[in-house]
Amino acid sequence: MKELAELEVERLDLKAAESGGKVQVNGVFGKLGSPYSAFYSPDLMLAVTLTGQLNLACLIYDLEFNPNIKVLSANTDGIMVQYPARLRDKVLRKIAENAERTGFEYEETPYSSVSMKDVNNYLAVTTDGKVKRKGLYAATSLMKNPTNSVCSNMAVDYLTSGTHPSVSIEKYTDIRDFVAIRVVKGGGVVYDRMEEVDDWVQVADREWRRQEWIDTGSTRASVKRVSRPKPVEVGIGGTRFGRIARWYMSIDAGLPINYIGSGNKVPKTDGAKLCMNLPSSLPAEIDKQWYINETISMLSDMGVTV
């Protein structure tokens, strides 16, 4: 039997505290490298980063003395190690030697399984059944906007209990689990319809601008080409909103969300329905199959076949 564990350098116990405390600590560290801050201290910044990373590199070297011990990933303050249970004492001895030499103290989190997209994005199930969610799969917080959190929740359900997303989705009835939020610089719009417009004007040699841009004084760059550009699709009418977009995926959706300024589509909004006011219950037209497919794709990215 193999054991899997994550080792982290012991730090301020902010895991059980509000996210604001962690933000403050990380903010102070970030200012160590800013010459415009009262906290400016490049020597301390290097001590925190290079010293810690060099130590972890040495620890990895020491641990992989045996080909059966594998360091699966490493970040700035911890490593993830997989090893046969029979080698546990030797692994702990190497860690203890490193701690005595460097003065660092380590804490261990044993895992029963880890599903990983990359070093910063993974779901890890601890031996006592709890789940650590990192990066794309982390829960909504001050550090992370809602992004279809029901999908990562269903991925957790599958990893911990084997419940297929098509089954587990039925227990989620809060619209907040299904919405995504994104900053839309300059404001956004959902057009009523699209029309083809051919109003190109040649303003110089090999330089074209649309008549609408000329009339409105738009600062968009001219199109550089010899021949007349092709007609463009232009949005007509629609619902405009400010710089924050919130939506859910719907079987009754219209056109995707667009930036007002550039006219470009907001990424991943094909099939999206704008939801600036949260309904009291889950909309009947919500596209549950889309969320199921997204969850299966998410698990596939982590090497899990559903």
Sum this structure up briefly:
The protein contains 7 helices and 17 strands. By secondary structure, the chain is an alpha+beta fold. The radius of gyration is 26 Å and the shape is extended.
What does this structure look like?
The protein is of the alpha+beta class and 306 residues long. Among the domains are: 2-109, B family DNA polymerase, palm domain (Palm domain of DNA polymerase, Alpha-Beta Complex); 180-192 and 237-301, no CATH class. 28% of the residues lie in helices and 28% in strands. It has 7 helices and 17 strands. It has helices spanning 19-31, 42-63, 88-102, 149-161, 165-168, 211-216, 288-301, and strands at 2-9, 70-74, 78-84, 106-118, 121-126, 131-134, 180-183, 188-190, 193-197, 200-204, 207-210, 223-224, 232-236, 239-241, 244-249, 258-259, 272-274. The strands form 5 sheets. Strands 2-3-1-4-5-6 form a 6-stranded antiparallel β-sheet, covered by helices on one side. A 3-stranded antiparallel β-sheet has the order 7-15-17. It has a 3-stranded antiparallel β-sheet with strand order 14-8-16, with no helix packed on it. Strand 4 and strand 5 (121-126) form a beta hairpin. Helix 2 runs antiparallel to helix 3 and helix 4 (149-161) crosses helix 7 (288-301). It is extended and about 75 Å long. The mean pLDDT is 88.
